[in-house]
Amino acid sequence: MSPVPARVEVLDPVDRWLHLGAALGGLGALATGPFLESPSLASGFGPAAGALGSLHGWCAGALLLAWALHLTRICLAWLEGRTPLGLLLRPGDLAALVRCLAWNLRVAREPPLPGRFSYRERLPYTALLLAVPVLGATGWAVSHPATAFRVLGAQGLLAAAQAHASAGVLLVPFVVWHVYFAHLQPGVLFWNGAWLTGQSPWTRVAALRPGWARELAADAAPARDRTQEAPSVESLLETGNRAAREGRLDVAEEAFLEALRLYPAYSQALFNLGVVRSRRGDRAGAADALERFLEADPFGPVSGRARTLLGELRGEPAHHE
Fold it and tell me: How far is the CA of 142 from the CAs of 42, 45, 136, in angstroms?
């Protein structure tokens, strides 16, 4: 049986809602932005053209709110002693990209083993993390030209408008990159619904993130081993004693036998097994267990009782030692 569940959590509930807000807000803002930059495009909507500006602002606000909440969550995780910056670009990502290209070109013999995050996620994440505050600040300046003019001046306001448009255009390739690798990558289903459910099939994770799959399997294996770990001989003895007191002699015998399988010289289990078998009417089995007990512990506290019971099983006269 696989040590991992059939589905793997890729987004927890909070991240799922933040991702959804960022996706809807970002895509809405990028879709309505060109109409605000080009009045000729907006004129085709007639009276509804004015609503595009409001829709663009609401979408941009949703994106900025998701960004701020995500940044807050990062800070809280940092205060808790965790390192929540695993999605930021790092120097090793360039080498990983080169290895991936080499393998796809059949230059490298071994395929890459991407972990939980790779350059495929880190590149668009870092771009979005840096672009959103720029878009938010310049977007405010563009939407409040009178106030921005007093602060930035004419040249500053013009630069803000140009920066806002440029940042939006530059963000588009990263959005396309993310959608492709997260949802439409060749060799997988046409659409990956993990952004809605927060989960991805284990088979998909193993195929696209083999390094992460190995980590999940390694983390899950000890937990599975602990659940399947054999009980101790002491716990089995207690289980047998409790069952014997309750009159469940068959259960008691099985527990004592299992304890003896783990520890054949366990004298207390041998004695208790002999007593239980005698109560069940298995004279031969009881005698065998008591004989083995006396061989293992001939001078123990209950050795006298064992000899007395063994004599009764053999039909010998009772005597006191």
Answer: 17, 22, 10
Of 235, 240, 259, nearest in space to 250 by CA: 240
First-to-last alpha carbon distance for the chain, in angstroms, is 56
Under a CB-based contact definition with an 8 Å cutoff, are residues 127 and 167 in contact?
Answer: no
Residue identified by tokens 């408008």 is 161
> What are 98-115's pLDDT values in tens digits?
877 787 777 776 656 667
Does pTM surpass 0.85? no
Which helix or strand (DSSP H or E) is residue 8 part of?
Answer: strand 7-9
Cβ neighbors of 41 (< 8 A, separation 6 or more) are 34, 35
Residue the block writes with tokens 């059949």: 106
State the Cα–Cα distance between residues 52 and 58, nearest whole angstrom: 10
Neighbours of 164 (CB within 10 A): 24
SS3 201: strand
